[in-house]
Amino acid sequence: MRVTFLGTGSAMPTGDRFQAGILVQADGRTLLIDCGAGSLQRLQQSGVGYENVSTVLLTHHHLDHVADLLPLMKARWLAGEEHLEVVGPQGTKALVDDLLDVYEYMRDKLEIQVREVVAGEFSVAGFDVSAYETRHSLPCLAYRFGNLFTFSGDSEAFAGLANFAEGSAILAHDCSFPDDVDVSNHPTPDALGRELSGREIGRVYLTHLYPHTEGRHDEMLESIAAHYNGDVRFAEDLQTVSIT
Questions:
Q1: Mean pLDDT of 67-79
Q2: 100 pLDDT band (50/70/90 cuts)?
Q3: Measured distance CA(188)–CA(163) in Å, rounded
Q4: Which residue from 4, 79, 105, 177 has the fewest beta carbons nearer than 10 Å?
Q5: Cα separation of 188 and 135, whole Å?
């Protein structure tokens, strides 16, 4: 499996970090998780291209996770592609319908298939996936791909999510702010380190990074390391991780 971080930023993107998007590839299968602003550019820069993304799996419906969904539809239509599948939590069908109500000319350009999923197990784009409900300000799902890869989506750090991720070769986890930011719905490094303590995870990549984290990576890693002694790194846009 290959996991490519297309966007490791947040609702306040920087020049180096676009909004949320992760590409998962294995044995000819391709899945895009989330589709924030900049995802189309990063898909082209990655060499995969939007033409080769026919399924999008959404963690939740905040703007920084869906902003490029309609542009993806249009780009695929213009490229001669005929369909797109959008999978996500409850409300995904209403989201897509509302987007197409605003841009009505796009309604019949592609065959759009929408599927809503809940916590539990399902298949998408040929992948077997487990979903777990996170703690965020909108309904949000974390996704696990066997023992290879888990993505937290947006969430506070809590024991249930850490248990869900345990045993993964790679965990990509929201770590939006440094410790001195008073925040809910996202974890700080100290909170994340405490919840990961004692868990067996191959490597943790921190993502969904607000500009507040810039220049403070070392102290954030130290804060996590005070509780969790595993391998923790910051994800970067267009970074690809191979998992076996």
A1: 97
A2: very high
A3: 18
A4: 105
A5: 14
User: How many Å apart are CA 170 and CA 104, to the nearest integer?
Assistant: 40
Residue with structure tokens 């703007």?
63
Residue type, 113: Q
The residue written with tokens 């970074």 in the block is 239
Average pLDDT (167-191) is: 96
Is 64 among the catalytic positions? yes
**Residues 34, 64, 68, 237: which is the catalytic one?**
64
Name the β-bridge partners of 31: 24
